[in-house]
Amino acid sequence: MLETTVDPLTLRRVLGRFATGVVVVTTRTGEGHPVGMTMNSFTSVSLDPPLVLLCVGRTAASFEAMEQATRYAVHILGDHQESVSAAFARSAADGAEKFAEIEWHPGEDGLPLLDDCLARIECTIVDRIELGDHVGYVGRVELGHSQSDVAPLAFFRGRYGRLSP
């Protein structure tokens, strides 16, 4: 690792000035239980082949499930889904508790899929990248579609925001 003099709290404040979208990522544990987490560390990587990347902190409650996973789904939240984001942001809650509060259904292979989101992308993990205190999960997009034409939910300076469609 490279040495740095940047204070982590200062870096967090600086990066908080970058407006992001809000997604909920879902997968299953090895036993098949649904797991989900809210994040904004998600990006498109490539259109050909279709690849996306999400980064999960090693201390995240869902980290072990992601390490065992072969697939995940990314749900891009609409501006009406702040409560969904909040439910999946609670690290202390278990999967059953998080999923009890929202509408969802299992995909063909059991992957938990949230209903009524702005868009959803289903992926197979093709690479894991060690990235400091996080691991990056490169997913090959297998299915992606828009489900709604509402405005996206945004996050800026530690707060939710809304954008015009």
Labels describing this entry:
alpha+beta, Pnp Oxidase, Chain A, globular, about 160 residues
Identify the CATH homologous superfamily: Electron Transport, Fmn-binding Protein, Chain A
CATH second-level architecture = Roll
CATH fold label? Pnp Oxidase, Chain A
Query: Which outline best applies?
Result: globular
Number of strands: 12
- Please report the number of helical segments: 4
Instruction: Tell me the strand order in the biggest sheet.
Output: 3-2-6-9-10-5-4
CATH class: Mainly Beta
Q: Summarize the helix and strand pattern as letters.
A: HEEEEEHEHHEEEEEE
Helix % is 10-25%
Q: What structural class do you assign from the helix and strand content? A: alpha+beta
Strand content: 35-45%
Describe this structure in words.
- With 165 residues, the protein is of the alpha+beta class.
- 17% of the residues lie in helices and 45% in strands.
- The protein contains four helices and twelve strands.
- The strands form three sheets. It has a seven-stranded antiparallel β-sheet with strand order 3-2-6-9-10-5-4. A three-stranded antiparallel β-sheet has the order 1-11-12, with no helix packed on it.
- The longest helix has 8 residues.
- 27% of the residues are buried.
- The model has no long low-confidence stretch (mean pLDDT 87).
